Amino acid sequence: AGLGVDIILLDNLASQELHMVVAQVKATHPWVTVEASGATVLRTLSQLLGPHIDMVSMGCLTHSAPTLDFALRV
């Protein structure tokens, strides 16, 4: 039976556990897109990368972005 999903988000897993779970998912459902997330920063990004990880979410890209103050007159 199918999973009924196209994408699975795995959030806040330890690196070793993440890669084990992703390998199991891809072995039985290779068409499913797997996204990894959770406390990811550029310094730790390499720990999440692997042959079965399709996408990585990084909140730090927007959480720490500088703001721009502007106004529009309509």
TrEMBL record:
GO terms (BP aspect): NAD+ biosynthetic process; quinolinate catabolic process
Record's keyword annotation contains Glycosyltransferase: yes
Indicate yes or no for the key word Glycosyltransferase: yes
Which biological pathway? Cofactor biosynthesis; NAD(+) biosynthesis
The record's GO CC annotations read: cytoplasm
What is an example of a Pfam family matching this protein? QRPTase_C
Give GO terms: molecular function aspect only.
nicotinate-nucleotide diphosphorylase (carboxylating) activity
Domain Quinolinate phosphoribosyl transferase C-terminal, chain residue ranges per copy: 4-73
Q: Which InterPro entries match?
A: Aldolase_TIM (IPR013785), NadC/ModD (IPR027277), Nicotinate_pribotase-like_C (IPR036068), Quinolinate_PRibosylTrfase_C (IPR002638)
Key words, A-Z: Glycosyltransferase, Transferase
Q: Which family does it belong to?
A: Belongs to the NadC/ModD family.
Report what the protein is called: NADC pyrophosphorylase
Name the species this protein comes from. Answer: Melanocharis versteri
